[in-house]
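sry for the spam today, last one i promise. struct tokens for design, 156 residues
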């Protein structure tokens, strides 16, 4: 696995993201990390990430959601924000940590996301309680918020 020394080696692309996240196609949803800053190994509060997801027509969910009117599913948007948050939580010193979604709070979907859209995910760690971290997330298309949620993650 490639060693990634955040935040020096940005942007980070999918091939390197695979060395951090356990997800693989078709469930690796982050295409690129654009920015990563803040926080420390001891306390991730203030850690921010900007990541990118390119919405393409050939993604498997569009065969059924919805035929003739493809819309990126809200649950996939939540997972996309969660994967960006997991990347923000990543600590190269503690590589063995596993991060799982514990709770989704205050999820809102403000506009449909369709093939051809480029989604920018912004996530910031607002609380770090050791084994539980909380992220405030937004998804934007053309600088407009299309979704937002608070994601609680459990670290094992």
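last one done:
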């Amino acid at each position: 696995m490639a060693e990634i020394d955040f935040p020096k080696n940005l942007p980070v692309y999918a091939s390197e993201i695979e060395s951090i996240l356990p997800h693989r196609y078709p469930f690796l949803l982050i295409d690129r990390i654009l920015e990563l800053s803040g926080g420390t190994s001891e306390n991730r509060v203030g850690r921010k990430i900007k990541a990118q997801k390119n919405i393409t027509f050939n993604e498997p969910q569009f065969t059924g959601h919805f035929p003739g009117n493809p819309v990126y599913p809200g649950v996939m948007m939540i997972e996309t924000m969660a994967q960006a948050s997991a990347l923000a939580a990543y600590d190269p010193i503690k590589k063995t940590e596993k991060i799982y979604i514990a709770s989704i709070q205050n999820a809102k979907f403000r506009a449909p996301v369709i093939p051809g859209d480029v989604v920018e995910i912004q996530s910031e760690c607002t609380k770090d309680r050791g084994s539980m971290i909380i992220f405030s997330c937004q998804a934007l298309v053309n600088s407009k918020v299309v979704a937002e949620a608070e994601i609680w993650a459990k670290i094992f």
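The domain at 12-155 is CATH 3.10.129.10 (Thiol Ester Dehydrase; Chain A). ok im logging off now
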